[in-house]
Design goal:
Helix content is 7%, strand content 40%. With 474 residues, it is mostly beta strands. Strand 15 (297-303) and strand 16 form a beta hairpin.
Length: 474
């Protein structure tokens, strides 16, 4: 019995062993079959296998681009601190402003933005960079929106941030107002000034404002960006005066040079003999030129670098040059009284001085080339007046007569007469003045007539009525 059990156990063991060998060999065979075959050349004429697509291919997931986000103005990150040294010598300024910041912000990169820039569209701050020594609190910066004729409306993206002092990365304050802007509109950005108590020697306190126009659907910019820096560097230094000089040219004109000795750009505008001449911004340590004719007084108004304005004035000498055609002067009766007009038939503008009634009124102006302009008016039409204009190389005088432009009032007289052999009355109106006029009439309180024109000295038959008491009102 024991021997029979032993034989049975050995048979079972051998069966399991054989079964294990079979599984082992099967595994080795399958592993060899899955080894990638090495690619080799295919003999000419050999058939090539063609991979067929699966019967139910799986489509790749559809990737939808993210919805565009409203763009925001992100100024370029400021560079490292480089206080440097203050310039020395006449007119030198201490402009250690610490970390530099770009005055023009750049739009944050967004590949989904597909906007079109609009030529002529711009946004500009109303002030140039300036020094500010106020305490901590709100500080404002205003921009003006300029749009071309083909762009009626736009949106605005703004930003402000503290350049210095800071303890980490710049913190931007982006904002897109709900307001829709049109050409000439303004918008004021409010930021938080750190205060001059944050200033440390060799560095600066500085805030930067940025603005940029974007299209109505907020998909991207339509203009270049503009920026403004307000700073404090230990003390606010006003810019030195702009320097204005003139020199005669060979053609008799005067060449003016306006120079900026400051280490920052300076905005300016100027007048010539009281008339607008031009405006712009002079680069730091730069200059600009313009030309006038005749003896001219130029007044230049410029930003002083600390939020105010100053002026410089100069008068040119008589540069002679080619002889000018005489100007002509005459007068006419106008709603303002007596008005004098001067005409310039020259191809260049001519500066004049004028004098009414020996100094009662005086002034200067520039008469554009080949043009006529009004010089002065007098409301006193009962008196005679004399106006004299003087220019380089000549003068002219014109006199008005007393009462020449005094308007006489019309004087109308109503008359009536009986028509012979009838019981009818003829009504007449006579104009016994020297001016033409019009009138209306009504008989016995009846309807008003249509306007009737009557010239000076004329008599008009108006209407008739039966005999008896009647009243004609004119």
């Amino acid at each position: 019995m024991k021997k029979s059990r032993s034989i049975t156990f050995r048979k079972i063991t051998r069966a399991f062993y054989l079964l294990g060998v079979v599984f082992l060999l099967a595994g080795m065979f399958l592993s060899v079959a899955n080894i990638p075959a090495q690619a080799g050349s295919i003999p000419d004429g050999a058939a090539q296998a063609t991979r067929l697509p699966p019967s139910n291919p799986v489509k790749p997931p559809s990737v939808q681009p993210p919805a565009p986000k409203p763009p925001v103005v992100e100024p370029i990150s400021p560079g490292p601190s480089d206080p440097g040294s203050a310039p020395q010598g006449p007119g030198a300024q201490n402009l250690n402003r610490g970390p530099s910041s770009m005055a023009t912000p750049a739009l944050r990169s967004n590949p989904s933005i597909m906007a079109t820039m609009a030529p002529g569209a711009s946004v500009a701050f109303t002030q140039a960079d300036y020094c500010y020594d106020g305490p901590a609190g709100e500080i404002e910066a205003t921009v003006v929106i300029n749009l071309p004729e083909n762009v009626s409306q736009a949106r605005l993206s703004t930003d402000w941030y503290i350049v210095w002092p800071r303890t980490g990365a710049i913190v931007h304050n982006y904002f897109t107002p709900d307001q829709v802007f049109e050409d000439g509109d303004t918008y004021t950005i409010t930021g938080q000034w750190p205060g001059i108590d944050q200033w440390v020697e060799g560095n600066t306190v500085e805030i930067h404002f940025g603005a940029q126009l974007i299209d109505m659907d907020l998909s991207g910019p339509i203009s270049e960006a503009d920026g403004l820096d307000v700073y404090y560097n230990g003390r606010c230094n006003a810019s030195p005066d702009l320097q204005l000089s003139s020199v005669c040219q060979d053609d008799g004109s005067t060449l003016w040079t306006l120079s900026n000795p400051a280490y920052i750009p300076v905005a300016y505008s100027y007048t010539v003999n009281g008339q607008p001449g031009g405006s712009g911004t002079i680069a730091a340590r730069g200059s600009t030129t313009f030309t006038t004719t005749g003896v001219s007084t130029v007044v230049v108004t410029f930003d002083d670098g600390v939020g105010g304005k100053r002026t410089v004035t100069a008068t040119s000498e008589d540069c002679g040059g080619s002889e000018l055609e005489p100007l002509s002067l005459d007068h006419a009766c106008t709603a303002a009284g007596i008005t004098w007009t001067v005409t310039n038939d020259n191809d260049v503008a001519v500066s004049i001085d004028w004098d009414l009634d020996d100094g009662d009124e005086t002034g200067s102006l520039s008469v554009p080339a080949n043009s006529s302009i009004s010089v002065v008016s007098s409301a006193d039409t009962d008196s005679a007046h004399t106006l004299t204009v003087t220019w380089s190389g000549g003068s002219d005088t014109d006199t008005s007569l007393a009462g020449e432009c005094t308007l006489e009032e019309a004087e109308l007289v109503v008359r009536y007469s009986c028509i012979e052999d009838t019981e009818t009355i003829q009504w007449q109106v006579s104009n016994e003045s020297t001016v033409d006029t019009t009138f209306t009439w009504s008989l016995d309180g009846g309807a008003q007539s249509a306007p009737v024109a009557i010239v000076a000295g004329e008599t008009i038959d108006v209407t008739t009525s039966s005999s008896g008491a009647h009243t004609l009102v004119v």
